[in-house]
Structures are given as C-alpha cells and as structure tokens.
Design brief:
- The chain is mainly α.
- Helices cover 76% and strands 1% of the residues.
- A hairpin with a 2-residue loop joins strand 1 and strand 2.
- The protein has a single domain, classed as Formate dehydrogenase/DMSO reductase fold (Up-down Bundle), CATH 1.20.1630.
- The chain is globular.
- Helix 1 packs antiparallel against helix 4, helix 1 packs across helix 5 and helix 1 runs antiparallel to helix 8.
Length: 277
C-alpha cells in the first residue's frame, strides 16, 4: 500500500463508517422495535466519527496526484461541506433523542442521510480520473459504505440483547440479512471492476508493483474481505433465527473486523492499481 495514500485511505474509511452508520441507524429507527438508548448511542458515535472525518478532510494535504493516483480536487469542498452537514445532523439527532423529541431528530437524520449520499457521490467523482467508469467507482463506494454501516450498527445493536433478552429478534435479523445482500453486491461489483481495465494506470513514486493479479492484497481482499465476511454474515443471520443473540453478536464482532480489513485492502489496491475494489 502506498504510504502517501494512507491518510486518504483513512479518510475514505471514516466517510464510509460515519455515513453508513447514520443510514442504518435511521433505517432501524424508522422501522421501529429498537430502543431509544440504542439510537442515542449510534447517533453520538456517528457524530464523533463525522467530526474526525471533517477534521481529516481539512488537515491532510491535497494535490491532484496522490503518489501517482490522479484525483479531481474540484469535489473536495463538496465533501467537506457534506461531512460538516452529517456532523451537524447527527448531533441534532442525538440531542433530540435525548430530549425525547424523536420526530425532530428523525427529520435531522434524514437531512444528514441525504448530505451523506452527496458526500459519497462527490467522493466517487474525486477519485474518478483513473477509473474505467464513474459508476463503477460509485458502486464500490456505496456498497462499501453500506457494508461498514450495517456491520457496525448490527454489532452495536446485538449488545442490547445481552441485557434485555425480551427484545424482538426482527431488527437484528433484518440487519444481518441486509449485510449478506450488501456483501453479495460488493462481490458482483468487485468482479466487474477487477475485470475491466482502468482508464489510467497509477504510477507510484515508491517501488510498488501496479499489477492487480501480482499483488497479494488482491487475494486477501477476496478471501478475507468478501468470502469470509459473507460466511460470517450468513452464520450471524442463522443464529438470529434461533434467537442465539449472544452468538450472533460474537460473529458480528469478527465480521466487523473482516469487513473493515476488506475495505482497507480495497482502497489500498485502488490507489495502486486504479481498480475500485
């Protein structure tokens, strides 16, 4: 992985985690049967991650060339403003839930979710120059955002069953089913984006081989980030069906690690090869 691209890789992961978690928290809240304490906790976590994301966007150095990977800086301000909107909306969401003003909080969260979608669209445009087609990069970022958000939200929600065994199983079952679907979509887009040649091949200053099939990270991305994550998600779903919520939460812990690892590998490979995996 390119050392120069590490801060930008971290930024992408923070964006995916903050926005994906907001989307799935809002979804769970609107669907019902999750507790207000859970919604408050998730909204606070989103606010913290969004704050770190905004700080990162304004702190790292930006050029049109990140160790050989071309970017379009015209979208940077959109990403910064959108991230600030997510931070503001999630903070209002948390405060409103704490005060018992749930409808106002949900309205703020909907605005933040829309702002988050704009951030992901702008991020795909910023990273687009070397990629074979804009929608290929956007699909990778959207599914990555959903995967990060779903696995984090479901793992946190799983802890509520450890203290209140009478909670309904449907929310966690739905979240794990969404996770399975998202990882499946990621796998499809992975195959497409890995197969079609990049528009421009990045030329890292450091001595890093740019060949996709020659890079060990490519196979770790497949084995750990996709296949193993999918197996863990399926097992977690199966355990929710028999109400073994403690086991499901443990599986989601491991799945969160594999999903996060997969996203790190995917973004690292993208900066080296120009393939949004």
């Amino acid at each position: 992985m390119s050392a120069e691209a590490l801060p930008h890789t971290l930024l992408i992961l923070l964006i995916e985690l903050a926005i994906g978690s907001l989307w799935l928290t809002l979804y769970s809240d609107l669907r019902g049967e999750v507790t207000r304490g859970f919604v408050l906790t998730m909204a606070l976590l989103v606010a913290v991650v969004a704050g770190l994301t905004y700080w990162t966007t304004t702190s790292i150095s930006w050029t049109n060339n990140i160790d050989g990977y071309l970017i379009n800086q015209d979208w940077l301000k959109t990403i910064q403003h959108g991230t600030l909107a997510v931070l503001t909306a999630s903070s209002i969401y948390a405060f409103s839930v704490f005060m018992g003003w749930d409808p106002a909080g949900r309205i703020a969260a909907i605005g933040g979710a829309i702002g988050g979608l704009i951030v992901v669209v702008a991020l795909a445009a910023l990273l687009n120059p070397p990629i074979w087609f804009y929608l290929g990069g956007l699909a990778a970022l959207l599914t990555g955002t959903l995967a990060m958000g779903t696995v984090s939200t479901s793992m946190v929600w799983g802890h509520w069953y450890l203290t209140e065994g009478s909670l309904p199983a449907r929310p966690l079952r739905e979240l794990t089913l969404i996770l399975i679907s998202v990882i499946g979509l990621q796998t499809i887009f992975f195959i497409i984006n890995a197969t079609i040649p990049e528009k421009t091949t990045p030329m890292p200053v450091t001595e890093i081989g740019s060949g996709l099939l020659e890079n060990p990270m490519f196979y770790f991305r497949i084995g750990v980030g996709l296949l193993f994550s999918l197996v863990l998600a399926i097992f977690a779903f199966k355990t929710t069906q028999i109400r073994a919520m403690q086991s499901a939460t443990g599986l989601l812990y491991v799945c969160m690690a594999t999903v996060f690892t997969g996203e790190v590998l995917a973004r690292g490979l993208q900066f080296i090869t120009g393939h949004p995996l």
